[in-house]
Amino acid sequence: MLRGLRLPMARPLLARMGLNTIHTTAIVRAQTIVPRPPPSERVKPASPAYFTTKPSYIDTLLMLDQLTREIKRELEQSYILQANSKPPPLPQGPTNIWVSREILRSRLGINLRASQFRSIISRLTLLLRYRALVIANFTGENASMFSERSTTQQKQLAQKMEEVFATFMSSHGKAQDAQKKSDVPPKTSTRGYIDEQGRAYARGRRKESSARIWLVPAKNPDLEIGEVLVNGSPLNQYFTRAVHREQVVWPLKLAGVLGHFNIFALTRSGGQTGQAGAVAHGIANALVAQLASANGAEAQSTYERVKLLLSKDGILNRDPRMVERKKPGLAKARKAFTWVKR
């Protein structure tokens, strides 16, 4: 009925009827507009990584990175670590303490690739480097007392770190961790231990070579006549080069106990350089195990001094350097053929 009232020719009629064009337009719009329902409440994703392919995997990486940054920042602000310093070394003991790829895949609920599993393990290993400092300074007697807020924050970081380790550690890793906390050194051949016959035993590795070392105190250490046998032969007969013999006895010289022990070594694989490095690596760890078994305050101080010297020298850890592989198109690993223009 009111459809034609908006035309210009109908304006006189509207004037006689006492109506206004603006009011009529409002009436027409009110009749044509359909009321809309109120908008529903916006649902936000629970995680920032909701729209990624694997949100649980991304959340795990972000959580580990954030916790590592917070712990490092707190250690630097407490003047325990220098600013922008390298992470502390890994603690001694087995490093394969994390859950397997299948268990982690079931916990995250995704199909975890090998590269993604390595990314999580590498972040957990980096966090493990700061664990000793966090336990010694944030939860022990040496906890910093700058303010109540700082102390509370440090304890919360330490508790959160332990919860993360409890989540991602395997049952074997938890057992090793409990054994380490009880001040009982783990019986591993890599770090050395005292066997049933009272001999210090350790294994050493270098390149493709491996060595087994038995270390026994000499009957009369004052005479310094300790002997070193490698595969049943004296040291000077098995290693004909002086540089290899010096490498073998270097841990004993560094500790100042050259000639105080009789050493029996069995080595195999690799060449002379690799075998000499493997024997030296095993001797260093066997020496630390032998000194750790001694009783008394003087023996304990000697053990700590020798272990610190060998640790700073790096002989307690395996040398990770390996032979670089040959590349296709090159004569050797890096040597190239003579380039000819034509």
UniProtKB/TrEMBL annotation:
Belongs to the universal ribosomal protein uS9 family. This is Small ribosomal subunit protein uS9m. The keyword Oxidoreductase does not apply. One of its GO terms (biological process) is translation. Residues 170-192 are annotated as: Disordered. GO terms for cellular component: mitochondrial small ribosomal subunit. Residues 174-184 have a biased composition (Basic and acidic residues). PANTHER family: RIBOSOMAL PROTEIN S9, SMALL RIBOSOMAL SUBUNIT PROTEIN US9M. The keyword Ribonucleoprotein applies. NCBIfam families: PRK00132.1. One of its GO terms (molecular function) is RNA binding. InterPro entries: Ribosomal_Su5_D2-typ_SF (IPR020568), Ribosomal_uS9 (IPR000754), Ribosomal_uS9_bac/plastid (IPR023035), Ribsml_uS5_D2-typ_fold_subgr (IPR014721). Keywords: Ribonucleoprotein, Ribosomal protein.
